[in-house]
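User: Hi! I have a protein structure encoded as tokens and I'd like to know what sequence might fold into it. I'm fairly new to this, so please keep things simple.
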């Protein structure tokens, strides 16, 4: 079953297919060009992935403690990172520069949000902690202005951090974005999403 996809240069389309296949397709010819079984490599299935700027490499977040740097030309693992030891990185969203990304790390005391620099191979900051026990979605606004995390506990919450410092800026109660997800407007101060009921919503973060 298809689980995630991301465009690369030209006509490249990268696709994750459950239970653990990672594929490269030409979206124009509909031809599959490459495939690998990440589970066979003991890496976990690809959940979130994007290309690194200026390189023929991708960051592949597997929902496990392993984060891969994947060589898209040789179609092999270039580097295997475990940025938080045995703690899994369960969600990730890249900043516009492609090098940094926001991530949800699942620790013993619950989830925490961090920003990590894939080029420098180091953490940029730990975001202010929250009292939600689960985060099931993460988004980074244009220009990296905000990090937005979606939680379903406590009646539904959206947590918003400053994308430059990790300071918690907003906690909005009541929103319950559905599996359709959502996205930021180009200016970065509105987040549009669809609830499970089908109702369309607009979170104004500048208000």
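Assistant: Happy to help. Inverse folding works backwards from shape to sequence: for each of the 207 positions I chose a residue that suits the local structure. Here it is:
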């Amino acid at each position: 079953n298809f689980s995630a996809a991301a465009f690369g240069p030209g006509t490249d389309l990268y696709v994750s297919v459950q239970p653990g296949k990672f594929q490269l397709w030409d979206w124009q010819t509909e031809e599959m060009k490459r495939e690998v079984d990440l589970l066979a490599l003991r890496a976990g299935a690809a959940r979130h992935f994007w290309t690194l700027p200026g390189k023929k490499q991708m960051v592949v977040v597997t929902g496990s403690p392993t984060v891969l740097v994947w060589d898209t030309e040789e179609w092999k693992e270039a580097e295997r990172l475990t940025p938080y030891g045995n703690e899994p990185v369960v969600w990730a969203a890249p900043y516009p520069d492609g090098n940094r990304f926001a991530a949800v790390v699942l620790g013993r005391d619950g989830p925490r949000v961090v920003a990590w620099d894939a080029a420098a191979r180091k953490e940029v900051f730990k975001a202010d902690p929250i009292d939600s026990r689960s985060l099931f979605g993460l988004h980074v606004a244009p220009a990296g202005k905000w990090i937005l995390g979606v939680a379903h506990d406590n009646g539904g919450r959206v947590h918003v951090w400053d994308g430059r410092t990790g300071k918690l800026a907003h906690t909005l109660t009541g929103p319950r974005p559905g599996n359709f997800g959502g996205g930021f407007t180009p200016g970065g101060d509105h987040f549009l999403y669809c609830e499970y009921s089908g109702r369309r919503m607009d979170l104004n973060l500048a208000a």
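A useful reference point when you look it over: The first strand starts at residue 2 and ends at 7. Feel free to ask if any position seems puzzling.
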